[in-house]
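Dear colleagues,

I hope this message finds you well. In preparation for our joint manuscript, I am sending the alpha-glucosidase (Aureobasidium subglaciale) sequence together with its predicted structure, so that both groups work from identical material. I would be grateful if you could confirm receipt.
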Amino acid sequence: MTLSSAVIGLLVALATAQQPQYPPAFPLQPSLASAYNNAPSVLPNILDSSAPNAQVVCSGYKASNVQQSSSGIQADLTLAGTACNVYGNDIKDLVLSVRYQSQSRLAVSITPKYLAPHNESLYILNERFTPLPGAEDGCSNTTSDLAFSWSNNPTFQFMVSRVGSGETIFSTYGKKIVFEDQFLELVTSMVPDYNVYGLAESFHSFRLGTNYTQTFWNAYNLDNDQLPDVNGHSTHPVYLETRYGNGSSTSHGVYARNAHGQEWLLREDSITYRTIGGSFDFYFLSGPTPKEVISQYQVGIVNTPIMQSYWSLGFHQCRWGYLNWTNLRDVVELYAEQGIQLEGIMNDLDYLNLNRIFTNNANYPVGEGKEFLDWLHARGQYYLPILDPNVYAPDPTNASDTYAPYDRGVELEVFIRNGNNSLYYGMEWNGFSVWPDFSVPQAQQFWTEQFVEYRKKLAFDGFWLDVSDPTSWCTGSCGQYQRSLNPVHVPFALPGDPNTSIAVDFRYPEMFNITNATEAAAASASRASQMSAYPSMTLAPSPVLRRTLATPGVRNINFPPYAINNFLPGHSLLKQVIAPNATHLDGPYNSTEYELHNLYGHLSGNATYNALVEVYEGKRPWFIARSTFAGSGSFAGHWGGDTNSDWGDMYFGISQALQFSIVGIPYFGVETCGFNGNSDMELCTRWMQLSAWFPMYRNHNNRNTIAQEAYRWSTTAESTRRIMNIRYSLLPYTYTLFHKANKAGETVLRALAWEFPDDASLKAIDNQFMSGPALLVTPVLAPLATTVQGVFPGVAAGTIWYDWYTLQKVDVVAGENKTMSAPIEHQPIAVRGGYIIPIQKAGNTTAMSRKSPWSLLIALDKDGKASGELYLDDGINIVQNATKNVEIEFSKGMLSTKVAGDFQDGIPLANITIAGASALPKDISLHIDGAACETAVVEVKTGGDVTYITGLEGVTTGGAWQNDLTLKLVY
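The corresponding structure tokens are as follows:
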């Protein structure tokens, strides 16, 4: 089609159709805009060549009073010379504690020796916020895989090594420990060309490289959220390192339990760890394989991922710009008409009254909403609206501007304060707002009450918690004396605001000018005209200043002397978040946001999960959070932020997903087809193919862009039907992976290097990945491509790979980067020999899919063997009345199952397909629980090295997994 003036007019109309719900005042009063821009900026230390080097100017520490035992080491550390006070005030006396916590885990902490009750939170991360692992019974230095050694020459330094090989995995030798009240630094030497992964969340290649700085200060950039190589929405200070040599590898993990703003400087021969507060609290994991490191971190430290509901693995559609309940219904019906699965429909801000949480506006009346939800639930589908953690603060001078959640929060004293008895009033979508302090118990009561009351109005099925970084679009408590202006617009133009340069987004992905030349020209001209007519109304960044100097005896928490490389305007910690000097209610500590900022998304997420559990009366909540911390996976999923509609953003989503596999948040997904900017047919088609493998599968975009539901382009619709049928048929396999993640800290999506840990050629691959151990995905990640290249690991050792679609062996040699055909509607998928995959034919929802007869796909290895697993439960409840585990083996022509558990689904086994079996068996026998079954109705045929067994439903009518089953093929 041509992007004509009529179409452009329609885009503008769609983008601005929801304007009545937004306050008309724009921009804000000058006083507020001035306050927003008034805070100074700083130059990050890593960019400041004049910043002192703490390793040069600081003295380090000396150890004394050393007490060693089989369980660990305790010692005093005393400043070895004059205090340098380079980026804060040196702490003279520290305590070293080394604990052998398990065979695979060693803990090393360095904390101030003298802590007053009122300042403990400055240095100690409370175990109420994230797990604090302890020692397992019987652990000692004689049972540990790891050893701790230290020296006082010239100052205190330590080393962690493997007991068996003596390999050093962490060493501060030759470096100094720096410990100040606002700056900590520790440097470990690294092997050449090291391989480090993790440190989520970053928009970066999966292998982090040796010239990279990971900053942790949770933040959101409305203009361009997914910037590469900067701090993101989450803080997970843990990394996995893999070392190769002599045809094998070893892996280990390092976790720094600290929530303060921090940086990890990955350089050629070292990693420097710096924080602006807290203590050193390290945990070393011995592995020695990547998968063991990940499991040790999740099981032993942060807790394993929550078990998702079965239906959460379906596909979900969202858009900022759905006009009303009728619009939502139309979308649901159009997906059905096109034969594309849809599990849940989501609302962005559109449903809220003036963007105030727990409300509905006139376009989304509650009565009509109840009718819509009754209709939706009857179809087996779900409704999942947005939720923000901030609470609108009404105008105190206007008696009609009332808001019950605010009044209840004031009554319960749950809101964050402004350093004194007044509340902290920041700026969010709804205008001036306050934020619940989720570090105190009464906030949970408040939050749960709001959920319970709102669900009496509308039977929502889950929430996605947005802007929980926590975001505030002004500097400091800007609403302190301006609440009489409420309701007000945020201090910048929003996508879709009329008479602005972002009323309509005319950006399109790379190569759109080739595939859609006429439309691209029209969009480019329209964008130029729009920008000329409506200059940008976003706020200009503040001038860059030099860092704040340390003042003896003073803690400067708004502008700390060490400036981390926060990517927001001016690099200031004050910008677009609750200010660091805002105070919490956790007396006697009165912690500030400086200490707890990176925990807000984690704590608000935990409170949201708990409230949903209360609302759903024991059912597993559907819940994803934008901002997370170490341990969030035990209650939340996560999405990767506001992606842009371009090919690079699609590619980086793979590394994000693998990062969150490491940190224990497997329920991860991205804004498929892109959130900002317009997608096109080719990009959206390829992205729908890729995201079909991400556990959280959602299409979501901005209200000033064109609609991008999967049915919008016929090619995208056809491709989506194909890939989604595969996804839904594999739900039993994926659900079993989630069960293993929940029980043992295993991963769902996997890097190739984790499944084949001794192959050094795989160390940097992040354009392919695996779903569990059995499926290899090679997505198309570039425009205009009809082929794609990929590797097939393990071939040199005899691994067989089968094409998913034909079940023929992939013709590939060891080390080959194979070129595969990948026309627009096709995505290459391979099955690994040696695995058995349980399958159910895809229905239009997960519930319908679960009613389909069972099939088994058996992919034989070089020895003619294969194995698999299946986990079953009701898929809904947190506590199960019955479960079932099925172990499936195939060897020497015989299939056998071992069944444990009482869950019964009553679904028969219909088909068995054996890839790699070319000969037609002469006979077949089937025994269920030892009793022979009549097999006259069973048909066996072969073709193309594949054996097909059908008709089994006639002899497994009681259910495929009711009893142990043995199927013998006689050749």
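For the figure legend, we might mention the following. DSSP finds 18 helices and 46 strands in the chain. The two ends are 59 Å apart (CA to CA).

With kind regards,
E.M.
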